[in-house]
Amino acid sequence: MDSVVIAVDGPAAAGKTTTCLALSEIFGLQYIESGRTYRILAFEALRRGISPEDRPSVISLCDELIEQSRARSQFAVGGYAPQDLRSAPVNVTVSTVARIAELRVRVTELVRTWAAACAKCVVEGRDIGTVVFPAASIKFYLTATPEVRAGRRIAQEGGGAYEDVLRDVLRRDRADMSREVSPLVPAEDAVMIDTTELPLAQVVDRMVSVCESRGVTIP
Ligand code: CDP
User: Fold this and answer.
1) Tally of structural domains, the chain
2) 3-state DSSP call for residue 118?
3) Which of 14, 107, 122, 197 is the most core-located residue (most Cβ within 10 A)?
4) Which domain does 194 fall in, by range?
């Protein structure tokens, strides 16, 4: 296959990052994490005291960061520790920022540019198979019960009270699934995988089989 785009969507902590990184390793694909861009925008808005409700200011912040990172393969390179981007305030703000249509257009454009720069990639997000790459050759939608996802998030990030993490997962599910622009829904042609009772290694095996059956080869 000359060019490959694998879209992986689903709610928070369904196993997207772990499985995308595994696919990236196995098939030699570039990994693109679209959520990081929304998180950077939320983090910067908070740092600069911009209200996430103030759409014009959030959009011009986005334009400024795009301008700074022109011709780079990553948005706003450097300076963002994982704990900064995954803090509780960012988790809350990101849902508001991600509702802004003009912002989503810009992030979609960025992700498409990054994907075009590498022939083969796996792209993780919420709207990759539906909006960003509706013609992707392979689409996955991962899901799991909120309780299992909250447990996984705590295990991964090593912190937070279970009730708080579960509340955040449920709140973000609601926000992402109910927003007007690019809501989180499975693409019609996505391969659905419920990871509630499957160890992520088995989820990866299943995804690898699908990729191989669709002609993606191991280099
Ligand atoms: O890692 P986790 O699944 O918790 O979240 P993420 O992928 O880092 O995304 C954080 C937030 O960004 C999501 O809750 C969405 O509100 C937003 N997002 C989005 O709207 N569209 C995307 N393609 C990716 C993320």
Assistant:
1) 1
2) coil
3) 122
4) 4-208
Task: Give the pLDDT confidence score for residue 211 in this predicted structure.
Answer: 97
In a domain, 217, yes or no: no
Mean pLDDT of the chain: 93
Closest-CA residue to 58 (of 90, 100, 110, 105): 100
Atom of ligand 1 nearest to the CA of 85: 8
Query: Measured in angstroms, how far is the CA atom of residue 219 from the centroid of ligand 1?
Result: 30
Tell me what the mean pLDDT of segment 123-128 comes to.
Answer: 98
In a domain, 213, yes or no: no
What CATH number should be reported for the domain holding residue 196?
A: 3.40.50.300
Between 55-68 and 34-47, two packed helices, what is the crossing angle to 10 degrees?
120
Q: 60-113 pLDDT, tens per residue? A: 999 999 888 775 555 655 678 888 999 999 999 999 999 999 999 999 999 999
CA-nearest residue, atom 4 of ligand 1: 12
Distance 126 CA to ligand 1 centre (A): 6
Q: What is the pLDDT of residue 121?
A: 96
Residue 33's beta-bridge partner residues? Answer: 124
